[in-house]
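Ops channel
N.P.: pipeline sanity check, posting one input/output pair.
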């Protein structure tokens, strides 16, 4: 028996390992937006490059439009999955990670970032690693950060959102599953309502909610602008994504495959920033040209009011996010 363990078992095990590493790995990339958006395009590019360069070893299948999972479900599926050959990958918005990392809520603080360049200062800094590291203990491996853009507000009715809190009073706004967003809507004078992305168009069309906040590409691709009367260019916070994969699957991949996937992801990330910058301008123009929802800019005085009304949100979440981390971020951004 002991001979069997000493001599035969190692051979069997190495054969088994060979068998596993000769198999084709499958990555199911699940997301909730349309294929033509910055996230959709980056996911498709990632799949194309992997399917070309790792042909026969790794195959990526992309499932857009919540076809496979919504964002909250996909994270549970990733954490529960124990397949070594099929991995789930996704890029949920940063706002949906609060269950797994409280520090990531910093991204939702209104007016923390003046623009997308500010966001990149944080994303490209070592502070980011501090914010994503805790995810691994929860079974998620953070691989990259992708942009969509700064968010704007839309609303139905006879006047746009300009004055706070008056224009928000008694109005319901769809938000993502983020307590920071809920606090922000309340601070602006409105009523928050959490809903999955898949349900937003119907909720707006049927008047279940009056308005919502999102990036231009989502408002355009999901046709929210057809069932809203006004869009206010508030640029109040950032919509971005964390590309994540089940940690168990990732750590079990052969080293050379992991390296190649990481390099391809870096290419997709670079392209994503370009796609996002282009969509920000092009999708706004398409919405304006459609002549349905009217786009309004805030005056400097109105913007100051929005900033002032939401200034307390950071304080409210300071303990959860970490005072030191927030200080570090402010230092990095220089404001
Ligand atoms: C939303 O739920 O509004 C967004 O997170 C959707 C997305 O992935 O852009």
């Amino acid at each position: 028996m002991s001979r069997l363990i000493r001599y035969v078992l190692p051979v069997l095990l190495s054969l088994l390992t060979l068998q596993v590493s000769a198999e084709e790995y499958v990555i199911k990339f699940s997301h909730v937006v349309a294929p033509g958006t910055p996230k959709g395009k980056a996911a498709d590019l990632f799949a194309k490059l992997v399917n070309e360069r790792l042909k026969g070893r790794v195959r990526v299948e992309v499932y857009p439009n919540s076809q496979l999972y919504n964002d909250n479900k996909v994270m549970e599926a990733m954490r529960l999955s124990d397949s070594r050959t099929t991995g789930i990958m996704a890029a949920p918005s940063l706002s949906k990670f609060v269950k797994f990392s409280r520090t990531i809520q910093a991204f939702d603080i209104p007016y923390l970032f003046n623009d997308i360049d500010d966001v990149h200062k944080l994303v490209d800094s070592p502070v980011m690693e501090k914010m994503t590291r805790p995810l691994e203990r929860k079974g998620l491996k953070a691989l990259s950060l992708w942009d969509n853009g700064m968010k704007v507000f839309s609303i139905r009715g006879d006047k746009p959102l300009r004055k706070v809190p008056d224009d928000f009073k008694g109005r319901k706004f769809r938000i993502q599953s983020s307590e920071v967003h809920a606090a922000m809507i309340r601070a602006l004078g409105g009523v928050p309502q959490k809903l999955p992305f898949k349900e937003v168009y119907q909720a707006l069309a049927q008047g279940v909610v009056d308005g919502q906040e999102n990036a231009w590409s989502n408002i355009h691709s999901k046709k929210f602008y057809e069932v809203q009367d006004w869009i206010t260019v508030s640029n109040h916070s950032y919509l971005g994504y964390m590309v994540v994969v089940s940690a168990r699957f990732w750590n079990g991949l052969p080293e050379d495959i992991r390296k190649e996937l990481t390099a391809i992801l870096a290419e997709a990330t670079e392209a994503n920033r370009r796609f996002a910058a282009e969509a920000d301008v092009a999708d706004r123009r398409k919405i304006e040209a459609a002549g349905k929802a009217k786009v309004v800019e805030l005056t400097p005085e109105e913007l100051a009011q929005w900033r002032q009304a939401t200034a307390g949100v950071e304080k409210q979440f300071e303990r959860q996010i970490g005072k030191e981390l927030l200080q570090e971020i402010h230092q990095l951004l220089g404001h």
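N.P.: looks fine end to end. The pocket of (2S)-2-hydroxybutanedioic acid is lined by residues 32-33, 93, 148, 176, 197, 214, 218, 239 (CB under 6 Å).
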